[in-house]
Write a structure and sequence with these properties.
The structure is a single chain. By secondary structure, this protein is α+β, with helices and mostly antiparallel strands. It folds into two domains: 1-46, N-terminal domain of TfIIb; 47-137, K homology (KH) domain (GMP Synthetase, Chain A, domain 3, 2-Layer Sandwich), CATH 3.30.300. Helix content is 29%, strand content 27%. The protein has three helices and six strands. The chain has helices at 48-67, 107-120, 122-127; strands at 12-15, 21-24, 30-32, 77-86, 92-101, 132-137. The strands form two sheets. Strands 1-2-3 form a three-stranded antiparallel beta sheet, with no helix packed on it. A three-stranded mixed beta sheet has the order 4-5-6. α1 packs across α2. The chain is globular, with a radius of gyration of 17 Å. It starts with 11 loop residues before the first strand and ends with a strand.
Length: 138
């Protein structure tokens, strides 16, 4: 396991699980969460997968910029699809698809940068070997 020297710590507290709330200690987030309709809840409310996908997309965008060298990737659109589903062994698991779109850049060239970003992104590192996480230029 790679050790880190902490530069920032986000603190969030959840109450009530998937039909409850999450709040950060700094007050930036104070959200009610619900299960999505596909899982027996109701749409129109944040859920853990929305939050995970949002954080991953922002983090991946930062990693993309960090590894791009002299290439301008500031207008790249990063779409993260966080999937939740039943596992063969019982229970639930996650999978992630990351799609990076950047008009004006050759797709093969963009894929090389996406691959580097996938190696550098802290979220990608955290899930590596634990869930399926694929990143591709689209």
């Amino acid at each position: 396991m790679e050790e880190i020297k902490t530069v920032y710590t986000a603190v969030a507290t959840g109450k009530g699980g998937r039909s409850g709330s999450v709040k950060t200690d700094d007050g930036v987030f104070d959200l009610n969460v619900k299960m999505p309709k596909a899982m027996g809840g109701e749409d129109g409310h944040p859920n853990p997968e929305n939050l995970f996908a949002s954080g991953y997309a922002a983090c991946f965008g930062g990693a993309l910029a960090a590894v791009a060298g002299d290439k301008d990737v500031s207008k790249a659109e990063i779409t993260v699809k966080a999937h939740i589903g039943k596992t063969d062994g019982g229970g639930f698991g996650l999978a992630v698809d990351i799609e990076v779109k950047l008009n004006g850049m050759d797709k093969d060239e963009l894929q090389k940068i996406v691959d580097k970003a996938h190696q550098a992104c802290p979220y990608s590192k955290a899930v590596k070997g634990n869930i399926r996480a694929e990143a591709k230029a689209v």
